[in-house]
Amino acid sequence: MLQEFIETVVKNKEVFYLEVDESFAMCGSQAFYIEETKEAIPVALFWEDEDKAVACKADEWAKGIVKSATLEEFIEICFGMQVETMAVGIGFNADLSGGEELVPVDLIKALIKEIDRTKTAVTFSDSFESLAQVKQLLNQIELDITDEEAL
Predict the structure, then answer these.
(1) Full-model pTM
(2) Cβ neighbours of residue 87 closer than 8 Å, sequence gap 6 or more
(3) What beta strand segments (E) does the chain contain?
(4) Whether 10 contacts 120, CB under 8 Å
(5) CA separation for the pair 115, 30 (Å, rounded)
(6) What is the pLDDT of residues 53-109, one digit of tens each?
(7) How is 127-146 classified by DSSP, letter by letter?
(8) Rounded to an integer, what is the distance from CA 138 to the centroid of its chain?
């Protein structure tokens, strides 16, 4: 599932989401939680295909609006989600089955690997000036995580 998501998003340079109440469609994590409180962290849901996003317009997301983000915007969104202690959900069905939860930096790493492998041109316009800058921040975050784990 992850590999298909990565390949499709990089190839099409686009990802889809449902906007619900001026935010992403979200659910509570089944895999990640805040250690101190044991509370599930929020998971923002994304799809590599517009039809899959449309198929999830049900129940609490029935009034959701299908929107898209460019590959570059999605990478920036993922960095923001890392800072906000959120997870990324990919490939979920409307009943929240069939999906996969990921740590945002792990998804960014996979996207960058595919961008490099396919030599896909990317142009950032907001937080980053280049893919090299994205990689530099990713390396810094990984060092920070390693330092925290060592404590």
Answers:
(1) 0.90
(2) 29, 31, 32, 41, 42, 43, 44, 81, 101, 102, 103, 104
(3) 14-20, 23-24, 26-34, 39-46, 65-70, 87-90, 100-102
(4) yes
(5) 29
(6) 999 998 888 999 999 999 999 999 999 999 899 999 999 988 888 899 999 999 999
(7) S-S-HHHHHHHHHHHHHHHH
(8) 14
